[in-house]
Design goal:
mainly alpha, 8 helices, about 80% helix
C-alpha cells in the first residue's frame, strides 16, 4: 500500500480493523456501560459514524506503527527492507538485469527494488495487485502489533474489576503470556507478508525481463 487513501474495500479494512479495536478499547476505558448487552440496538447512523471513526483511528495507528521498524533495525543490524531484498534468492539476477538495462553503475538494493516496482506496476498489473494485497496484510499486521495490546489490556481491565486483587493479578499474568504469543505471531506475519510482497515484485521483474529479451 503506497497511500493511505483506499482503492477498494480490501484496503479500507486494513485501516478499519485496527481502528475498530482502538475504538472498542476507548469504550472499555471510558464508557464500558455503552457495551452492555442490555443496550438498545445500535442504529445505522451510529454504526456508520463509528466505522468512520475507526478508519480515522486506523490511519493514525498506521502512522504511529512505523516506529515498530526502528527496533527491528537495531535487532537485525540493517534495515528490514534491505534484509528482505538481500535474502531474495535471485537478487543477483535482478541486479544484473537492471544494470544491463540501464547501463549505469551498480545501485543499492533498495534502488533495484524501486526500479523493479516501477516496471512491474506498469507492465504486470496482476502481479502488482498480488504484491499490493500482501503489503496490505503486512500493514495491518504492523498496526495490530500496537492495537491488540491496547485492546487486550483495556478489555481485561474492564472485566476484572469484579474480581479480587489476587485474582486480577493472576488473570493479567495469564493474558500477558497469551498476548506475548499473539504479538510474536503478528510480528512474524508483518515480516512474512512484507517479504512476500517484495519477492513477488522481484520475481515478476525477472519474468518480464526474460520474456522481453
Amino acid at each position: 500500500m503506497s497511500s493511505i487513501l483506499p482503492s477498494n474495500l480490501y484496503d479500507t479494512l486494513v485501516y478499519v480493523i485496527p481502528g475498530f479495536l482502538i475504538g472498542i478499547s476507548l469504550l472499555f476505558l471510558f464508557s464500558p456501560e455503552s457495551l452492555s448487552l442490555d443496550n438498545d440496538k445500535i442504529g445505522l447512523g451510529m454504526l456508520t459514524l463509528f466505522l468512520i471513526l475507526s478508519y480515522v483511528l486506523g490511519i493514525i495507528v498506521h502512522r504511529l506503527s512505523g516506529a515498530v521498524i526502528y527496533p527491528l533495525y537495531y535487532l537485525f543490524g540493517e534495515g528490514v527492507l534491505e534484509g528482505i531484498i538481500r535474502d531474495f534468492p535471485d537478487i543477483k539476477t535482478v541486479r544484473a538485469l537492471i544494470d544491463s538495462s540501464l547501463e549505469i553503475t551498480p545501485l543499492g538494493d533498495v534502488d533495484y527494488y524501486r526500479y523493479a516496482s516501477l516496471i512491474v506496476y506498469e507492465k504486470l498489473p496482476k502481479t502488482a495487485e498480488i504484491a499490493e494485497k500482501m503489503m496490505a496484510m503486512s500493514t495491518m499486521s504492523r498496526s495490530l502489533l500496537i492495537c491488540f495490546p491496547i485492546f487486550a489490556l483495556s478489555a481485561t481491565k474492564a472485566f476484572t474489576r469484579k474480581f479480587s486483587k489476587r485474582m486480577e493479578l493472576s488473570i493479567f499474568l495469564f493474558l500477558g503470556v497469551v498476548l506475548l504469543f499473539i504479538e510474536v505471531v503478528l510480528l512474524r506475519s508483518f515480516l512474512s507478508y512484507w517479504s512476500s510482497s517484495v519477492w513477488e515484485v522481484l520475481r515478476g521483474y525477472i519474468v518480464y525481463s526474460k520474456l522481453e529479451n
